[in-house]
Amino acid sequence: SVPEGTEMFEVYGSPGVDVYISPNVERSRERADTRRWHFDESSEIIVVMNSPSDDLNDSHVQIFYHSSCESLPLAYAVLYLTCVDIALDCDLNCEGRQDRNFVDKRQWVWGPSGYGAILLVNCDRDDLSCDDQDNCDQHVRCLQDLEDMSVMILRTQGPTAFFDDHKLVLHTSSYDAKRTQVFHACGPEDSCETYRHVLGQDKVSYEVPRFHGDEERFFVEGLSFPDAGFTGLVSFHVTLLDDSNEDFSQSPIFTDTVVFRVAPWIMTPSTLLPLEVYVCRVQNNTCFVDAVAKLARKAGCKLTICPQAENRNDRWIQDEMELGYVQAPHKTFPVVFDSPRNGELQDFPYKRILGPDFGYVTREPRDRSVSGLDSFGNLEVSPPVVANGKEYPLGRILIGGNLPGSSGRRVTQVVRDFLHAQKVQPPVELFVDWLAVGHVDEFLSFVPAPDRKGFRMLLASPGACFKLFQEKRKWGHGRALLFQGVVGNQQVETISINQVLSNENLISFNKFVQSCIDWNREVLKRELGLTDRDIIDIPQLFKTEKKKAVAFFPDLVNMLVLGKYLGIPKPFGPIINGRCCLEEKVRSLLEPLGLHCSFIDDFTPYHMLHGEVHCGTNVRRQPFPFKWWNMVP
Fold it and tell me: Gene3D superfamilies attached here (predicted)?
């Protein structure tokens, strides 16, 4: 529209229209309506409207073209404008930011000054009349289900007539549609029938009708946790399409995007406060269950007993499952991770724990090849630590495997992939293949402490046990017997301190065991940032079984930690002056930390089967007070 001979121009906007000019790339933009401008083809005119139009074409920009030879304009041009405001909004979780109005919804940023929308995997079962998890179909079964979803709002402001020949399309990628679902609130929000499934699985786009005028509400749920090949990030877009020309296909005008991160599954260390204790009742463990119940009452915990009809004499509830949680700014709920071991307890997590606000997740190898290392006694997590200058405010997952480069047992790949993909508790792999069962809880545990890092790590120590026994022999107690008072169907032979200290095979094997534990000790010190002052050596001996190690007497570190109350396997150690010297030693190490030691007889129902108190119990704990999105992985 520029006439020949143009040397200068003026530009003006109608009320509500701000016009700026950027004469060239070197100069910043200036208000355009202050003077005439030299005409240059590289000049850019920038038009800004700060509020939506009331009617079509109700605003305009007018340009006058001038020549030095003419007093009147050579010509003028008018650009008619309609302003619409279109935004796809959600909770961007900006509470730590001062400039929350200037965040990029297309990005997801970790850390205390970060931002980004968060999505929960809707893996609980709010509708008890249903057999499946909430996200297993394309329906909202009950209104409580919506509380587990994240709200996404499409806001549109502008003339109603504008939308007669323009469309709004909500869309996502086919990749993201396999991992999320979106429901549109199409009517009164107090009815389940209101919520139409519009994205997810095979649906990747949805033309949005304007049921509610300026605002349409959507509810988004996650279908998949982060895993191998899925970072946890998903994107949704709304695109404005021009549909005014019947001779051409629709043309895109504008797209707005929001990015969600699927919340990770988070483990809880034994130092967090306990809420609920689980134990199985089997044929021969009535006294054990009673002792666990007594400890739970002391700690103020709920107790859940899995009856024999459901556990079918499978007592290893620690091995069957790990209790963690998921969290978003609007909702937190526990999630049970069901192990692939699939013993007689395999139905318990899904049938008895999955329920309202209690989610479920599992990982099974396709070939179903699992080893003893895939039981979740081999899955623990440390308290919060700082190592090598890096903060781990949610601790680090500890799993057992073999030595680097060896061909021994490892946790199945699908479980390792899942744990690594959660990002917030980076796993450390320890050496457990020297153990017959092969679980990290056979040689380590964590207890709360009032000082330093807020905890101590307990390590089983043959060296500490031999030292203790040598001291007792020196003081004339070499004939004191282990295993006195063991009650059970099988006769257990007693053995004296003198016999233990003269058994060359036992001494030699425990030197090997100590070397394996020492190897793990150095890994743990390095990866968790620990010093020897953070570690307590708990006296423990092991014996060989098929060239692997099992506990010689009940494994003292395999304990139940309920706040300051500890349920420790009763070791049946040498009785000196009427007291078990192993119990006395453990008390002397732990009670100065304000801990209360209760020794539970698990000898016949658990120890004889290569397990202990920790193996036979499980605990749901309070979530971390620290919010996972405030960390930097």
Answer: L-arginine/glycine Amidinotransferase, Chain A, Protein-arginine deiminase, central domain, Protein-arginine deiminase, N-terminal domain
